[in-house]
Every structure is written in structure tokens, then in C-alpha cells.
Amino acid sequence: MENKWGKTKLGNVLEIKYGKDHKKLNEGNIPCYGTGGIMRMVDEYLYEDISILIPRKGSLNNIYFIEEPFWTVDTIFWTKINQEKTNPRFLFYQLSIIDFVSLNVGSAVPSLTVPVLNEIPINLPPLPEQKRIAHILGSLDDKIELNRQMNQTLEQMAQALFKSWFVDFDPVIDNALAAGNPIPEELHVKAENRKILGNNRKPLPEEIQKLFPNEFEYSEELEKWVPKGWRVRSVGKEFNLTMGQSPPGSTYNEEGIGIPFFQGRTDFGFRYPKNRIFCTQPKRFANKSDVLVSVRAPVGDINLATEDCCIGRGIAAVRHRTGSRSYTYYSMLQLRDHFNKYEAEGTVFGSINQKDFNNIIWLTCSPEMVKSFEKFAGNWDQKIEINSNDTAKLIKLRDTLLPKLISGEVRVPEFEKIIE
User: Fold this and answer.
1) How much is the mean pLDDT over the chain?
2) Rounded Cα distance, 41 and 59, in Å
3) What predicted TM-score, i.e. pTM, was given to this entire model?
4) Percent of the chain having pLDDT more than 90?
5) Residue 295 shares a structural domain with residue 253
């Protein structure tokens, strides 16, 4: 289709402004942006209208669309957009597909200048068309963001439940209070809080509540009070652990030949890794739904395998002996503080070996409690998986549509029914 849209230069539709020093500002509720995102919250703003932030130095492709008052430091430009000429969100989407790194004029530090940015060519369809395009792409981004927020909320709920049951021992405290049994001094505050909550807290189903003991006993090994009958063991006794081993580099490819290969945090996402490298001669495997733990630089990043895959020496695959996916995942999250010690103790790069991983102390409850936790958290995790799959499809659709709509290669009516 012939593109009959107008063209102009970026400098004709916005004014580029320099950020300012933030060090003398007080703490507040206004976000202060640098090239890496929000640096701190301050009590003043540079601008309160819609703006696009463009890096001046550093990570040149990190641009931001801002719809609230903000402050920026001097490593990033802020802009005043002429909204009579262009829709701000349409302009943002157009800038988002530009490789600003290719416009670098710096030497030691990647840099952009106002004259260089002002000369960037811009497609300029009529404003109504810009708004329709921005609405389509914005609707996709809004749904992607909603899924992200839902997933964070669901994961926080599951983490809170894990902490309540296996760290704070809330059901045991409740049972001890109901039975009139003594509460250890170190748990008195928690017990008082449980009393205050009283009928306002949602009780566990009786068949689950009765799985927890109604007394505590002192653990010499952990030097604290724990639920009576729970045993102190090790990660190696409670979880099946497979340390990764890297295949020869000559067996790697990016064409999808073989099985997915993961080496470390480079491949990790919010919860699931991204298929980037494949391997034709795998050495060590992780099964679908195994928890992937980064064991080298940095130690302790955590993801879930979505399919059988090959793991390199930077990753360990973990699964609780009951097979519980959710219990394993939130257990490994609970060990992050422990993993951080290995990160800090590394000479050049932090790491944890198989022996040290297996020897981490773990407080063991009954398999029935693990299975009960799985019933609750497993449902939430299933929703997270569905949302994540939905998000992946939306991102693919958006990334396919964006350059075609922005360039005018395709027009809005062809895709409005698909988006609906």
C-alpha cells in the first residue's frame, strides 16, 4: 500500500529539554528519572504534562512515556510535545522502534545530542489516525500491564501463605492458643497479634488446620522454637537437586535446533525463562516445572522451567521430593537471603556448589502439609501461568503490529476486529 502520510522531523513536533540535579531535593512523592528508570521520589517536579523521556548518556534505548508530574536528572532529556501536531502516545510508539544506539555521538560514554535527535525523521499521519493507532497499541500494552500486576499480586498471595504456614507458624500458634498450650516467649508478639485478629481472620478449613501441631519445641540446631514434630534436615534430604553442566559451545544455536539451553539469569524473566539458545548435545536436564536456581553470578535468581530443557553450570534444577511445584518454588524464594551470602562471599563471582547447596538447613513438615499448600498456591500459580502465556501472545501481536501501523504499511481498519 502506498504510504501517503506526511513526514517531518522530531524537532518539529516537540521541544527537547535538559534534566537537572536532584541532590538538593527533599524526599517526596514525585518520581525522579534517570536512564535506568525511577531513581528516587522527590518533592518537586520539572514538568507535569505528558512527556517522553529520551536518554542523553548511558543506556540509549531506554525511553519512557510519562503521564504524571516528574523530575529528571541530567543524563536524560525530557520533552514538551506539541499535541496539536502529534498524539503523544503515537509519537512514543514511533520512537520506541528507533535504535538510538545507532545515533551515538559519544566515545567513552554513549551519548545523544539535541541536534541529532531533532533530525530524526517522523511519520505524521492525520491526528485522528494517530489516535486510533495509539489506542490499538495502548490497549495491548494496558492488557499486558494488567496481566503483570495480576501475576505480581498472585505471587505475593502465595508468598504470604508460605510465610504464614512455614516461617511464622500461624496455624500452630492458633492451635496452641485454642488448646491453652504455652506460647514460647519469642512468639508472644505473633500470638498477641493472632488474638487481636480474632474472628476477623479467615480460618483455614478444619481438615487443613488439624494437620498442624498445637505445641512448640526448642531446636538446638536452629536455636529457636519450632512446631513440635517438625524435623531439621537439609535441602539435599528434602529436595532433588541437579547441578547443570555446560555442553560444548559448538553445540549451541539460535535456530531452535535441539532443546532449550539455559545458563543463568540472562535467560530469566519474571517467572519463566526465555528461549534464546538451543543445544543439540545436552549434558544435564531440568524437567518441566522444575525450579531453576542461578548458582553462579549472581546466586539465587529463580525461575520455573516451562518445558524439558538443558541446564548449564550456572543453574541448578530443584524439585521437592513430593513433586510439589509451588512448594519448591516458594521454598527457594525463601532461601534468597541464604543465597545472597554466597553472592557476597565470592572473590570475583559469587557461586554455590552442590555440597553447600545440599547442606543448607531446612525445617521439614509433613508431606500432607506440603500437599495442602499445593492446593492453595497451585491454583494461583496456574493462573499466573495462564496470564503469562496470554501476555506472551499479546507481546508478539503488539511487536508485529507496531512497526506496520507506525509506518502506514497497514491501516487500522484491517486490525480493529482482530484486537476486539
Assistant:
1) 92
2) 21
3) 0.85
4) 83
5) yes
For the chain, helix, strand, coil in percent to 5 are 40, 25, 35
Q: Which grid coordinates are listed for 57?
A: 548518556
Give me the pLDDT at residue 372, please.
96
Q: Which of 364, 382, 405 is the endpoint of a domain? A: 364
Clarify whether residues 183 and 172 are in a common domain.
Answer: yes
The residue type at 121 = P
**pLDDT confidence tier of residue 345, bands split at 50, 70 and 90:** low
Residues 352 and 264 in one domain: yes
- In the chain, how many domains are there? 3
Q: Distances in Å between the alpha carbon of 380 and those of 158, 375, 398, 407?
A: 7, 9, 26, 40
Q: What cell does 27 get? A: 524526599
Residues 6+ apart with CB under 8 A from 166: 331, 334, 363, 365, 373
Same domain flag for 275 and 300: yes
119 lies in the same domain as 135: no
Query: Bridge-partner residues for 30, per DSSP?
Result: 42
Are the CB atoms for 296 and 356 separated by under 8 Å? no
Q: What local confidence, expressed as pLDDT, does residue 324 receive?
A: 96
Q: Is the pLDDT of residue 334 over 60?
A: yes
Confidence of residue 307 (pLDDT cuts 50, 70, 90): very high
Reduced to 3 states (helix: H, G, I; strand: E, B; else coil), residue 35 is coil
Query: Does residue 21 share a domain with residue 116?
Result: yes
Exposure class string for 101-140: b at 16+ Cβ within 10 A, else e? eebeeeeeebbbeeeebeebebbbbeeebbbbbbbbbbeb
For the segment 359-399, what is each residue's pLDDT rounded down to a tens digit? 999 999 999 999 999 999 999 999 999 999 999 999 999 99
The answer to the question of residue 215 being in a domain is no
For 260, the domain range is 235-364
In a domain, 212, yes or no: no
